[in-house]
Amino acid sequence: MPEIQQALPKYLQIANHIRDKILADDLRPGDEVPSERALAADWNVSRPTATKALEALRTQGLVGSRQGAGTFVLDQVRLHRRARDRYRHSRETGKIYTTGEWAEIVAAESTDLTEYAAEALGLPFPGRGIRRRRITHSEDGPRSEVSTSWYAPALADVAPLLLQRERIRHGTLAYVEEKTGRRGRYARDTIAARLASDLERAELELGDGPAAVLVVHHTVYDAQQQPIEFAEAVYPPNKWTFEQGYSVID
Questions:
Q1: Quick one: which of 8, 147, 195, 198 has the most CB atoms within 10 Å?
Q2: Which residue(s) pair with 89 in the sheet?
Q3: 91 Cα distance to chain centroid
Q4: What is the C-alpha separation between 130 and 26, in angstroms, rounded?
């Protein structure tokens, strides 16, 4: 069981640990989560702290209580799986997506870099790079994400699957790590909102009218702080929910 750290309140660390297990599909809808007594013993915290952890999960819409039966994972998990959740799932299971999710690769090519991709990867602009574009589907709802990943052109020789429109089941980052020996150590996300482009409206099936989307620019760095991957992920209005716990200092 993970040890308590000082950066976050104890109850949030416990809640975030359980949340990660839910988003990684280690805990599925209908599964029982540990009781207050079990959490208090496993994490070496007081019962009130364990109670607050479960209450935080209820507030997030992840779990619900049944009178006299316990606390269980709800059927409708509203939080979107972020890149860090997928990386963890890939490293633990060898698959980037959880049950009920899959990606359709709509582009895998060497092409002109966008200005922001070149800047993020430290490549000259104008210039060329490797682009992979995918649409993420889920069994229980509409299309959930459109994302475009960019890589340095030199990877074409050592990681040729990046240029093929086939799914890389353990994820492109894990594949690049495997082929280059460079392991992702740090990632930075920049999040904003804007109107969807015509292509994004079509890919996300948002209709003909204006639609707001959430955009995440995601850059992964190796141990030498050199960029490995830059991605732009676009989420439809029904997938805007993200959550982060943090402490507030007076």
A1: 147
A2: none
A3: 13
A4: 33
- Asked if residues 125 and 115 have their Cβ atoms less than 8 Å apart, the reply is yes
Q: What is the pLDDT of residues 206-229, one digit of tens each?
A: 999 999 999 999 999 998 889 999
End-to-end Cα distance, the chain: 31
- pTM comes to 0.69
Query: 136 in helix, strand or coil?
Result: strand
| pLDDT tens-digit readout, 96-143 | 766 777 889 999 999 999 999 999 999 999 999 999 999 998 776 678
Count of CB atoms situated within 10 Å of the CB of 26: 15
- pLDDT at 203 exceeding the cut of 50: yes
| Topology of the domain covering 100-239 | Chorismate lyase (3.40.1410)
**What residue segments make up the domains of the chain, in order of their start?**
10-73, 100-239
> For the structural domain made of 10-73, what CATH number should be given?
1.10.10.10
Using an 8 Å Cβ cutoff, are 117 and 129 in contact?
yes
Looking at residue 169, its pLDDT comes to 87
Looking from the CA of 7 toward its CB, the CA atoms found within 13 Å total 5
